[in-house]
Amino acid sequence: MTAVAAVAHAGPAPRTVKNRSLPAWPVAGILLLYPLWWALGLGVLIFPLMTAPMIFLLLRRRAAGRPVRLPPGFAWWVIFLLAVVVSIAALGADPPGTVPERASERLVAVVYKLSMYASLTVLLLYAGNLTEAELSRRRLVRLLGGMFVLTVLGGLLGMVAGNFEFTSPIEWLLPSGVRNKGFVRSLVHPYAAQIMDIVGGDKPRPAAPWGYTNTWGNNFCLLAPWLVVAAWSGRGAGRKFWAMVCLAVSVVPAVASLNRGLWIGVGLLLAYVAVRCVLAGRLWILALLPVVAAALTIAMIATPLGGTVEARLDNGKSNGVRSFLIDKALDGFTGSPVIGYGGTRNTLGGRNSITVGESSSCERCGNFTVGGNGQLWQLIYAHGAAGTVGYLGFFAYGLWRFRRDRSAIGVAGSAAIVTSFSAMLWYNSLVTPLAFMVLAYALLWRNWTEGKTQ
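The structure assignment produced for this chain is given below.
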């Protein structure tokens, strides 16, 4: 009786506190285990696969009374996503000079891109809503720095074992008629390099683990600043030493990639960081840049790298194709300037003749993809002015909003966005480059939220 009375006097038992935390594993798992996803044949498919648990966890936090915050400028991104959806209405249109197809035949590629844009939107929201206790900015920076190391290792693999490839478990599970499609194969079939005749003779151009040499080069520029921030944010001299070794070694696959866009991006990256440092009063950068330039010059002269660069600059085989596709994209924009055509189109033949085209033995022979030669041209062609303004507006707003962030994260994050504006002239952003862009945006956003901008 005494025990019963004591319980009654104590009143009702307290309600169980709902779990409001967001675990780090959806973001950390994508980055830390990316080599595994690549080897399994998941690769970029890991992003939509992780979307469901991230949405569930965000909704659980919201149900527990903790609202999901939106990043500054998110309205611009919503405009872009709406434009992507609305532009599907024009999917059945066949602009002049393109291969006629039914809208249903184009729907698979469009759904794929839309799902990736949606997945990366969720990634942005999830990474931006994580707290320091859940996934610190420092740890996220280290993870991104690790992705640069992975990029360099993949580049070296592509150089020394350019023909290395294997059938992934996911690929084995697919019917032969599906896995032999070029688009599907690019998603699920791991390989080290793309073999191309750029400077005379077939040569391997690093691609692992990003699928394409252009994507490899794009990610190289986006991730390099994070390695520097990760190494110099700690006190250990060993970490700085190995970061410098990695940066020095990275020059070799960067040159071997024959990727002029990458070289331009690295130059822009160094120039932007130098300007930001000078404006912040860190004048030591003015002494460092000549040292870096001298080291690169010596490396070009004393090794075969210089000859590789010279040969690439003397062989601009892709210039004509790029100009042809830019003209096609601009012509298409005039035909549907507001919403575009919902997706890319294949040209009738090549730039010199319309009589060369696809066949059962060669899916891509003679046909070029309008909008496949750079994110900017894809935006204006596939999603018109509405999509282009929304996409550019979001990242440009971020640059402006976080312009006073002089911290290492602030400079590295804004540098990634600046280089992406250059890269969009010749690289497409889906999937991993855009993922690293939104993670850079999330770090800038969290820095601003925490007030750590100096």
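Interim note for the steering committee: The chain has 20 helices and four strands. The radius of gyration is 24 Å.
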